[in-house]
Design a protein that fits this description.
Radius of gyration: 19 Å
Distance between the termini: 13 Å
Structural class: alpha/beta
Number of helices: 11
Order of helices and strands: EHEHEHHHHHEEEEHHEHEEHE
CATH class of the largest domain: Alpha Beta
Oligomer: single chain
CATH topology of the largest domain: Purple Acid Phosphatase, chain A, domain 2
Number of strands: 11
Largest sheet: 5 strands, mixed
C-alpha cells in the first residue's frame, strides 16, 4: 500500500491538494490511501472544501483521519457554544487558534434572529466534520513499520532508569491519555528517547522547523530562512509545515504493508 501522509492542514484545501498532486497521488493507480495526522481545520479559509474532500475519501475507505488537538478544541467549542454565544464571550484560545472562525464557516449563513445561536449549532451538528469525520477518527494508525499519530504516542519519564519512554500499553490507553498526548512535541520526546524499538512514528502538531532549528542547529525557527520541510531523526518523521506561516503543506509518501483490522 502506498500512503500519502499530510498533517495540520488547518483549513488550507488548495495547498493540501497541491501537495498531493506534487507527490503524484492523483496519477497513481495502485493501492493507495491518504493519512491526515490531525488538525484538519482552523486558520485557513477553505474549511468546507477540505471537509467535503476528507469526507468523500473517508466514506470510500481511501483516507484515514488521525485525531488532533484542534478536533478536541472544536468539540469543546461545540459543547459550550450556546453558553458562550449567550454571553457574547468566547474563550481567547478558541479565537486565536481559529476554532471559532471555522465553526462559523461550517455553520453557514444565519439570519439575524433570536434563534441564530441554535441554528448555527444545528447546522454544525449536521456538518460532516462533526457527525462523521471526528467520530470516525482514530488516535493512531499503524502499519508494519510505522505508527501515525498527531502529537506523540503517550510517554512518560521513568525514574528507575532515568529516561523518557513510550508507555508499553500505549495501544490500549484511555481517551484522556491520548488527548493529552496530542499536545506533545514529538521531536522533543523522540530526542529524549521516547521512541519505539521497531517502528518509526510519523507525527504532526509541532512545526518541523523547531526540530531543524533546535536539534539540527539549522536556520531560524520561523521566518524566511526557516526550514519547514519534514524533520527526520531516529524513530521519527515530523511533518507539520506550519502552513499558516510557510504557505505549504508537507506530504510524504510511504510504501508499507497494511495490518489486519486497521
Amino acid at each position: 500500500m502506498k500512503y500519502y501522509v499530510v498533517s495540520d492542514t488547518h483549513g488550507f484545501y488548495t495547498l493540501t491538494i497541491e501537495a498531493l498532486k506534487e507527490k503524484g497521488y492523483f496519477d497513481y493507480n495502485g493501492d493507495k490511501k491518504i493519512i491526515i495526522c490531525g488538525d484538519l481545520l482552523d486558520r485557513g479559509k477553505e474549511p468546507n472544501e477540505l471537509v467535503n474532500f476528507t469526507y468523500e475519501k473517508m466514506k470510500n475507505n481511501e483516507l484515514v483521519f488521525v485525531r488532533g488537538n484542534h478536533e478536541d478544541l472544536f468539540l469543546d467549542l461545540f459543547d459550550n457554544f450556546l453558553k458562550y454565544y449567550m454571553y457574547c464571550s468566547f474563550p481567547h484560545h478558541h479565537q486565536t487558534n481559529g476554532t471559532l472562525a471555522s465553526f462559523y464557516e461550517l455553520a453557514g449563513e444565519i439570519g439575524d434572529t433570536s434563534d441564530a445561536g441554535l441554528e448555527m449549532l444545528n447546522n454544525v451538528k449536521n456538518n460532516h466534520f462533526y457527525n462523521y469525520i471526528i467520530p470516525n477518527s482514530v488516535n493512531y494508525f499503524e502499519t508494519k513499520n510505522y505508527v501515525f499519530t498527531h502529537g506523540w504516542i503517550p510517554s512518560e519519564y521513568n525514574e528507575n532508569n532515568n529516561k523518557f519512554e513510550v508507555l508499553t500499553d500505549w495501544r490500549e490507553l484511555d481517551e484522556k491519555t491520548w488527548s493529552d498526548a496530542r499536545w506533545l512535541n514529538g521531536m522533543s520526546y523522540a530526542n529524549l528517547g521516547a521512541i519505539l524499538d521497531n517502528k518509526t512514528i510519523v507525527c504532526g502538531h509541532w512545526h518541523a522547523s523547531w526540530g531543524h532549528h533546535y536539534l539540527e542547529n539549522k536556520n531560524n525557527e520561523f521566518g524566511s530562512e526557516a526550514d519547514y520541510s519534514p524533520f527526520y531523526a531516529k524513530g521519527i518523521i515530523a511533518i507539520d509545515a506550519c502552513t499558516a506561516l510557510s504557505n505549504q503543506v508537507n506530504c510524504i509518501v510511504i510504501d508499507d504493508d497494511e495490518l489486519p483490522n486497521q
